[in-house]
């Protein structure tokens, strides 16, 4: 039976890696990820986790060591944030191209400059195209659950891709939440030891990471793309398996009070919780508003998203990062493109909010709703506004 | 500290009679004619044998041996990027260690050998290398030093010698080519207090192979710095490639030595050194140098040699050098 515990979410994340019985952790400290790797170092030091903890000298080396260890056939975990994730950038593409099932927890944080250690999504939005499966957690339980699910998906023979579990820095990583901690036996039943398809083995030599000439590069990219797109079914299948094993249900897109909603907020990560509270208040005032939360970010669950917004007359898409020089934030840009491609003529108001740790309050949601409804009524141009900028 | 000395007590030397016949790096790669770097790497691979797990940096040796779907490697081989070879090797080592300890794979005695060029070692890969040496992973790191970024077209590195012309340190009216002195990478490796460091040249193939064999025999990190002639980048005749590798030692420009548990040991005491000019004149990368420039180089080489002898004396008083 699972135990009910109160635990800092970072520790829950580390405990998930322990329950997954990872073989190697290679990581470099950066706020707000530090508690995750510190706790893993402790678990190894105390003998609670039989793993190699590689205290590398940089994030570039962290992800490089992960590539090496995963290629050797070991279950491999790392975690980073912001500048650290950016320093990994080069190798992230290589890890997915080499089809290595590394799992990384990203404690989302603003990118410098100016230097800022607080939460937003600018770090991960700069890594949208790395070819990894990516999920976003809303709360502590989800962090733990998505972590276990991440290993299951990554190592599935039909996928063989690295996975990132995103969790908002501080807003999630540093809060203590009540959660259900599964038993080791339950996790073992869900997640058997990693059986690599191929590894660096002197008995069966293979060359990994070879040069791709123009004659093969396109095909190599296509193969990786197909693996990522194909992971969608496996992601869902392993959420179904997760529900069977642990009793908690997860979907690529989560809806809240959306059935008859005329306007839908679209959020990612922990912002969804504030959004739901705001929706409850607005509903009491008779406003037909709901929300849609993107849990599976890559591969993007196109059909689930379209199904979730059926009936809505307008969307309010929240971005927690800028895409400078483009008329919307990264999420809104993508969703507008998707809607256009699918023949929808649905107005999308975009708000960039919560940059670098700026709070996004229920009042902000009410303000955004007001503005969006006016814009929808006027039927004008779709805009993007940065929320709460002090002039 | 006698980690290396203990491990090498019963060391069985490679001799002309027992040169390994295995060729983990097989023929058919795309190296230039006379490439001394691939020759050195072949010797490394022979010395390690079929238990080698090769970790490659981006560079000439990666490009010429792995154009998909062809590979020249008969042993497991991985390439990830340019600057992270030592970090990748750290991960391979850590992964195997955990899996062996947990009983998930058997200990097959595989030897992890990471290699990179001088650029991948002394410049962009220095941090990852320093980290891996400091953490004490059990692996051997081989720097194949052809004294420039050859893969990208002969640009200077911090390992390019003073006076050499490269495409980013060209000789001109106001320049003699590279105007800085070659970085002493072996000394930097030795400063990490790792059990084994050595320098080698493919012109002395038994010495090279024995050093590699020692490097993989000692537990923990080992570093072997191999002078690797590049006729294409040095603008010398392919048939002179090995001659440069011989002369660089015979002129004392690139001394062959080992640092075993911190003790410096000369592999070859060059009693009657040839003038550096003999080495310089067969390579067109030095052709712009005037006699006074060559004198500057000669002076530096003499000083460095004295410094090396002093290190040998200081760390290894029993050694006989005069
Ligand atoms: C991060 C990064 N910067 C630059 C390059 C381009 N690059 C590839 S190989 C190379 C030079 C390799 O020089 P060296 O390490 O000395 O090896 P060599 O080719 O001389 O054997 C460079 C600059 C790269 N691949 N990655
Ligand atoms: S450029 Fe130089 S190092 Fe590269 S393959 Fe040719 S000879 Fe060898
Ligand atoms: Mg080079």
DSSP E strands of chain A, number: 16
CATH architecture of chain B: 3-Layer(aba) Sandwich
Spatial order of the strands forming the largest sheet of chain B: 2-1-3-4-8-7-9-10
Number of strands of chain B: 10
Beta-strand proportion of chain B = 5-15%
* The CATH top-level class label of the largest domain in chain A: Alpha Beta
> What would the principal axes of the Cα set say about the shape of chain B?
globular
Strand content of chain A: 15-25%
Q: Stretches of chain B where pLDDT falls below 50 for ≥5 residues?
A: none
| CATH H-level superfamily of chain B | Thiamin diphosphate (ThDP)-binding fold, Pyr/PP domains
- Write the element-wise H/E pattern of chain A from the N-terminal end onward: EHEHEHEHEHEHEEHEHEEHEEHEHEHE
Q: Summarize model confidence as the mean pLDDT of chain A.
A: 97
Integer count of domains of chain B: 1
CATH class value of chain B: Alpha Beta
What kind of sheet is the major sheet of chain A?
A: 7 strands, mixed
Oligomeric organization of the protein chains: heterodimer
- Whole-angstrom Rg of chain B: 19 Å
Small molecules bound: thiamine diphosphate, iron/sulfur cluster, magnesium ion
- Structural class of chain A, by secondary structure, is alpha/beta
How much is the radius of gyration of chain A in Å?
21 Å
């Amino acid at each position: 039976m699972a135990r009910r515990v109160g635990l800092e979410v970072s520790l829950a994340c580390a405990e998930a890696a322990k329950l997954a019985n990872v073989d190697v952790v290679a990581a470099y400290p950066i706020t707000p990820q530090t508690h995750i790797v510190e706790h893993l170092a402790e678990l190894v030091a105390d003998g609670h986790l039989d793993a190699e903890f590689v205290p590398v000298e940089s994030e570039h080396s962290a992800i490089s060591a992960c590539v090496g260890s995963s290629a050797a056939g070991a279950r491999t975990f790392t975690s980073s944030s912001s500048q650290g994730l950016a320093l990994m950038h080069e190798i992230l593409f290589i890890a997915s191209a080499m089809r290595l099932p590394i799992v990384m927890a990203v404690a989302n944080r603003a990118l410098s400059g100016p230097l800022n250690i607080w939460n937003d999504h600018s770090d991960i939005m700069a890594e949208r195209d790395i070819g990894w499966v990516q999920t976003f957690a809303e709360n502590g339980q989800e962090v733990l659950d998505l972590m276990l699910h991440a290993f299951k998906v990554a190592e599935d023979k039909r996928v063989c891709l690295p996975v990132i579990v995103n969790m908002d820095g501080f807003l999630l990583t540093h809060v203590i939440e009540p959660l259900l901690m599964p038993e080791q036996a339950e996790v073992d039943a869900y997640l058997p030891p990693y059986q690599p398809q191929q590894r660096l083995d002197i008995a069966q030599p293979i060359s990994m990471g070879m040069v791709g000439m123009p004659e093969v590069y396109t095909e190599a990219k296509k193969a990786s793309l197909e693996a990522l797109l194909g992971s969608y079914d496996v992601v869902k299948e392993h959420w179904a398996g997760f529900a069977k094993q642990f009793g908690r249900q997860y979907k690529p897109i989560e809806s809240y009070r959306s059935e008859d909603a005329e306007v839908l907020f679209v959020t990612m990560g922990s912002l969804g919780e504030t959004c739901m509270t705001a929706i409850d208040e607005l509903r009491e005032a008779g406003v037909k508003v709901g929300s849609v939360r993107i849990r599976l970010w890559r591969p993007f669950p196109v059909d689930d998203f379209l199904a979730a917004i059926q009936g809505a007359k307008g969307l309010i898409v929240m971005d927690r990062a800028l895409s400078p020089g483009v008329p919307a934030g990264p999420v809104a840009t993508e969703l507008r493109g998707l809607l256009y491609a699918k023949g929808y003529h649905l107005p999308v108001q975009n708000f960039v909010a919560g940059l670098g740790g700026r709070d996004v309050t229920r009042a902000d949601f009410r303000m955004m709703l007001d503005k969006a409804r006016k814009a929808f009524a006027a039927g004008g141009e779709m805009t993007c506004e940065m929320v709460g900028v002090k002039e | 500290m006698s980690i290396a000395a203990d491990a090498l007590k019963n060391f069985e030397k490679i001799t002309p009679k027992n040169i390994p016949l295995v060729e983990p790096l097989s023929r058919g790669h795309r190296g230039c004619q006379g490439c001394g770097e691939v020759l050195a790497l072949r010797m490394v691979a022979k010395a390690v044998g079929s238990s080698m797990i090769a970790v490659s940096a981006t560079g000439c040796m990666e490009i010429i041996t792995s154009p998909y779907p062809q590979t020249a490697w008969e042993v497991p081989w991985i390439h990830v990027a340019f600057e992270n070879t030592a970090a990748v090797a750290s991960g391979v080592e850590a992964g195997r260690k955990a899996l062996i300890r947990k009983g998930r794979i058997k200990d097959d005695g595989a030897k992890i050998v990471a290699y990179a060029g001088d650029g991948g070692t002394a410049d962009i890969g220095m941090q990852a290398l320093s980290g891996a040496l400091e953490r004490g992973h059990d692996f051997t790191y081989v720097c194949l030093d052809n004294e420039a970024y050859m893969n990208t077209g002969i640009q200077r590195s911090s390992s390019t010698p003073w006076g050499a012309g490269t495409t980013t340190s060209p000789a001109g009216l106001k320049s003699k080519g590279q105007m800085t002195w070659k970085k002493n990478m072996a000394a930097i490796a030795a400063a990490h207090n790792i059990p084994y460091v050595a320098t080698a040249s493919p012109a002395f193939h038994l010495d090279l192979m024995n050093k590699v064999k020692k490097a993989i025999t000692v537990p923990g990190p080992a570093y072997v710095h191999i002078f690797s002639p590049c006729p294409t980048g040095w603008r010398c005749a392919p048939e002179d490639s090995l001659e440069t590798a011989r002369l660089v030692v015979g002129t004392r420009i690139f001394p062959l030595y080992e640092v075993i548990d911190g003790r410096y040991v000369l592999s070859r005491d060059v009693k009657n050194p040839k003038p550096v000019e003999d080495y310089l004149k067969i390579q067109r990368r030095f052709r712009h140098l005037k006699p006074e420039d060559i004198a500057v180089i000669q002076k530096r080489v003499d000083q460095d040699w004295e410094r090396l002898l002093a290190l040998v004396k200081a760390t290894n008083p029993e050694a006989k050098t005069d």
